[in-house]
Amino acid sequence: xxxxxxxxxxxxxxxxxxxxxxxxxxxxxxxxxxxxxxxxxxxxxxxxxxxxxxxxxxxxxxxxxxxxxxxxxxxxxxxxxxxxxxxxxxxxxxxxxxxxxxxxxxxxxxxxxxxxxxxxxxxxxxxxxxxxxxxxxxxxxxxxxxxxxxxxxxxxxxxxxxxxxxxxxxxxxxxxxxxxxxxxxxxxxxxxxxxxxxxxxxxxxxxxxxxxxxxxxxxxxxxxxxxxxxxxxxxxxxxxxxxxxxxxxxxxxxxxxxxxxxxxxxxxxxxxxxxxxxxxxxxxxxxxxxxxxxxxxxxxxxxxxxxxxxxxxxxxxxxxxxxxxxxxxxxxxxxxxxxxxxxxxxxxxxxxxxxxxxxxxxxxxxxxxxxxxxxxxxxxxxxxxxxxxxxxx
Length: 393
Fold this sequence. Notes:
10 strands; 45% helix
C-alpha cells in the first residue's frame, strides 16, 4: 500500500515537475546565447530605431559595441562610463551634436580611457568625448592600467560558430532552481492573463525575443529579447541611452542616505582605502586624450555623476569621510585646471532641482534628473580659464 502511494506520488511529481523543467531548459538555452540575442537586438534596432532590451545581466558591452559600429558614420559625440550615465540622451546635448551613449554596466574609468583611445585612432569624425568620472563606485581611484581594446565590428558567423554549448548538467541544475521556477510561474501568470495565451506562450518559449509592440509612450516601438521586463520598453534607445522604465525609484531617502554614509557602505570604503586620492595614471591618460583631441579640433568633457539629493552633503560633513571626499574634489579640480579640461561636478543633484524619486539608488539618476542638470549647463559651462566650454555659433 505504501509502495503504491509512493509510486503515485512520484508519478504525480514527474507529471508536474518534468514539463516545468523542460520549459526552463528552453528558456535557458535561449537566454544563454547572449551574443545571438545581441546580434538580433542590434539588427532590429538598426531597422526600426526602436527601444530594445537584452537580458545580459550587466554584460551589455557586446550589444553596445555592435550598435556603436552601426552608428559611427553618423555621430560626432560619444559618452563613456558606467550605468550611472546611461540615461543621458541626445536631446540633452547642444543642438547639432549627434550622440551615441556608449556607457555600459560596471564599466570603470580605465575602460572608458581605452575606448576613447581606440576611437581617437579609428574614428576621427568623433569630436566630442564625454567621460564620466565616478568616485562613488571607486572607479576614479582604481590603479590598474587601462587595457588595450579592439572595438571593431564583430564577425557574426565567426562569433556564433565559436559559441560553446553549456554543460547539460549545469543547465538542469539551473532549471530546477527556485529562482528559475519562481520566474517560470510569473511567466505562466503573464501568459494566462494575456488576451491571447497561445500567442503569448509562443513569444516566450518558441522564439528568441518578443514580437514588436508599441511602448507605453504611445509612439516608440519596442522589442524585448529574453523573458524579463517584457512590454515595458525597459531598454536602450537608438542613441544608446537607457529608459530604466521598469525599475523602482527611491522612496525612503533618509534611510538610504544613512546606509550609504555608514562606515561599511561601498561609498565609504571607496574613500577610506584610497584616502580620496585619484589614481595618477588614469589622470595622465585622460590628459593625453585631451591633448590629442585639442590638436584634432575636438574636445574632452569630464563629468562627475549626480548622487541622490543631500547624500554628498552628508558625506562632506562626516568627520571620518568628509576630508577624503574634499581631497578627491580638490585633486580633480586642480588637475583639470592645470590641463585646461572641462570638469563638471553634478554630485549635489539637489542644486539642479533633482528629487529623490528621480533616482534608482544613491548613484543612478533617471532621465528627468539629467534633463534638469543639462537644461542650462551648456550655456554656463566654462573651461578652467573661464572661456566658454562650448563655442558660441
